[in-house]
Design brief:
The structure is a homodimer. In chain A, 33% of the residues are buried. Chain A is globular, with a radius of gyration of 18 Å. In chain A, 71% of the residues lie in helices and 7% in strands. Chain A has a two-stranded antiparallel sheet with strand order 1-2. The first copy, chain A, is mostly helical. The first copy, chain A, contains seven helices and two strands, in the order H-H-H-H-H-E-E-H-H. Chains A and B meet through helix 1, helix 2, helix 3, helix 6 and helix 7 of A and helix 1, helix 2, helix 3, helix 6 and helix 7 of B. Chain A binds a DNA duplex through helix 5.
Chain lengths: 150, 150
DNA sequence: CCGTAACTGTTACGTTTGTAACTAACAACG
DNA sequence: CGTTGTTAGTTACAAACGTAACAGTTACGG
């Protein structure tokens, strides 16, 4: 059922392409944290943020990762049960908790970081260094636009 | 908890950036099909594929959209209930069903296509035409790489 | 102070999802 | 044909999810 509207534009519809690229690359990666550490996708994302951008509260992770607070809340609980993470109520505001990886959690993050780096390098090879860099830059711009209410 | 591994690379970890970009742009768009037609995300994706690449079976949509067959099965059922789509068992293989949009479904697709096109154009404006085109091209390449088992 | 409003994080509940088991149809081989 | 294996699509069940309501804490205005 073709439309009067040119389909060329629509078959390139960005949200769709983004979803598919995200879904496929995520799927290719999830096997690692799932089989080795029994982690869920959201758990890996939370750990990723703690490991790469440092100790922070759940709220900060929500904002930075575009994740819902209940999702983060449950992931934090799961990571805590696995002894990958510990929480410490802030003295300055006792509603918030500072989250940080335990020694064990840090080791897991380091391990997965290696896999992630390999993964990223293979991607860079198949795309070419410049295209890879451009992609990263463009995605960041796109994220910024949308977050400020595009 | 910083690592020995350079974090510059990791904070640009592509699967994460892709997820976030996909999530944000999808969220910005979902309001339209949700409030006007009570459609779920997967229903919109299925309709999108039928509308833009023509009548096809559920299996074909699964492959093209990287969606799980149960997800597609349920979306098709929902779209059928809304009378947006009809199925016709193939004579050549009576396991498969050809899916095609009804008149009503086609109208809905046309309406949402307009919104999508506007959305896409605004995106193109904020990114610039060349960067937008590059992004599309790179994402397609990336999807191709992953689908062939990268 | 006291009451109201706002904010962080958790929990209850209904919906959506994925895994696995299933039905029905085809295909290949004796 | 009949048996075995494969494929398209559905369904049952448990896990994960989002919405909304919640508890505890802070901020502010009288």
């Amino acid at each position: 059922m073709t439309q009067d509207t040119p389909n060329a534009l629509l078959s390139d519809f960005l949200p769709f392409l983004l979803f598919q690229a995200a879904e496929l690359s995520s799927r290719n990666f999830q096997h690692h944290y799932q089989s080795r550490y029994g982690m869920l996708r959201t758990e890996w994302r939370v750990m990723f943020h703690l490991g790469s951008t440092g100790d922070q509260t759940a709220k900060q992770i929500c904002n930075r990762a575009s994740l819902h607070k209940t999702k983060v809340s449950r992931a934090v609980k799961a990571l805590e049960n696995k002894r990958f993470l510990k929480r410490e109520t802030l003295d300055t505001d006792r509603r918030s908790e500072q989250l940080c990886l335990t020694k064990r959690g840090t080791a897991v993050f380091a391990d997965l970081t290696h896999v992630a780096t390999d993964f990223d390098q293979r991607l860079e090879q198949s795309l070419g260094a410049r295209e890879h860099a451009n992609l990263v830059e463009t995605l960041r711009k796109l994220i910024a636009v949308h977050q400020s209410g595009g």
